[in-house]
């Protein structure tokens, strides 16, 4: 005979993320973002939670646009029934193709009280934090995606004196680009141009570990899609902790 004891009293605390809960809509083909975000979010009081959105691993304007219909459904998978402080849509190129306005409308249809960000939104906030207007940009994208990014950034008021690309459309390949290749590409972009800041686009790019080294080498602030979005998410959530070991952006 089993003695059943029910309705045992208990107390509750804030649980994980008691200070801030950040939701990430991550591409199904992304290998990188969670690893890089774990380097930033180290306190149990500030947590991030991820939901994957279906996408093609081949990055084209058409495959990026096709994600629009899945954004709200992915947000629904992020702690359903609870309120998130920030929701980030984690694709730079898709945000450019769809627009921040469209992406954020989809997010707010599920999480109306959440503050929204994206790699583009975060990059612009990072540029403005340094009063940077002339931006060197490095991407992995093919030419038609690059043109859309250039147009989006310039329409927002930034000048892109130099723009480089690996022209690689496959996310699994992009996630494997090594740090030496990124450094050589940065050298090529920054060798002759006077710019205020370097932005490395794409959440698949692995740059978090190299930011400080690149800043020391080139003497300007450096950020990436994941780097900027982690910082922006924290600040939007009211987390003011300074982490200068992650780069100059995290000292602001």
Order of adjacent strands in the largest pleated sheet = 2-1-3-4
Strand share of the residues? 15-25%
CATH fold annotation of the largest domain: Rossmann fold
Number of strands: 8
Using only CA atoms, what is the Rg? 19 Å
The number of helical segments is 11
Topology as H/E string? EHEHHEHHEHEHEHHEHEH
Outline of the structure:
With 252 residues, this protein is an alpha/beta fold. 38% of the residues lie in helices and 17% in strands. It folds into 2 domains: 20-120 and 229-251, Rossmann fold, CATH 3.40.50; 121-224, Rossmann fold (3-Layer(aba) Sandwich), CATH 3.40.50.1860.
Describe the fold and architecture.
With 252 residues, this protein is of the alpha/beta class. It folds into 2 domains: 20-120 and 229-251, Rossmann fold, CATH 3.40.50; 121-224, Rossmann fold, CATH 3.40.50.1860. Helices cover 38% and strands 17% of the residues. It has 11 helices and 8 strands. It has helices at residues 33-40, 61-65, 71-76, 92-98, 100-108, 119-129, 143-155, 171-174, 179-190, 211-218, 225-236; strands spanning 20-27, 46-53, 86-90, 115-117, 134-139, 159-165, 197-200, 222-224. The chain has a 4-stranded parallel sheet with strand order 2-1-3-4, with helices on both faces. The chain has a 4-stranded parallel sheet with strand order 6-5-7-8, sandwiched between helices. Helix 10 links the parallel strand 7 and strand 8 (222-224). The longest helix has 13 residues, at 143-155. The radius of gyration is 19 Å and the shape is globular. The N and C termini lie far apart (63 Å). The model has no long low-confidence stretch (mean pLDDT 95).
